[in-house]
Amino acid sequence: MSAVRLGGRLKELRIHLCQTSSQSAGVREFIQKSYVSLKKANPTFPILIRECNGIQPRIWARYEKGEERSTPLTNMKADDVLNEVQKLAK
């Protein structure tokens, strides 16, 4: 994984997922494979992981002035989740 720099207008990332559903499998894999390196590259940036049984996986990005965007992550592979993080970071 290449280092993804978070910051600028982006103020926070929240990742919502189910601990057991197949729809969240790629998100769980992303967290296992990429979270540590993402956090090391952005040690002070808030990246929140929220687990809730039965929900559809989704990523939320909060920007300056309270603007928020979200993207569904249903049935995505780990690499696709990383691509969504990179898109939201731009």
Automatic annotation (TrEMBL):
GO annotation, cellular component aspect: mitochondrial inner membrane
Alphabetically ordered keywords of this record: Disulfide bond, Electron transport, Membrane, Mitochondrion, Mitochondrion inner membrane, Respiratory chain, Transport
Entry-linked SUPFAM superfamilies: Thioredoxin-like
Disulfide bonding pattern of the chain: 18-52
Chief location bin: mitochondrion
Topology in the lipid bilayer: Peripheral membrane protein
Start and end residues of each Ribosomal protein/NADH dehydrogenase domain: 19-90
Stored InterPro entries: NADH_Ub_cplx-1_asu_su-2 (IPR016464), Ribosomal_mL43/mS25/NADH_DH (IPR007741), Thioredoxin-like_sf (IPR036249)
Subcellular location: Mitochondrion inner membrane
Record has Acyltransferase as a keyword: no
Record Pfam families: L51_S25_CI-B8
Family per record: Belongs to the complex I NDUFA2 subunit family.
Role this protein plays: Accessory subunit of the mitochondrial membrane respiratory chain NADH dehydrogenase (Complex I), that is believed not to be involved in catalysis. Complex I functions in the transfer of electrons from NADH to the respiratory chain. The immediate electron acceptor for the enzyme is believed to be ubiquinone.
Protein name (database record): NADH dehydrogenase [ubiquinone] 1 alpha subcomplex subunit 2
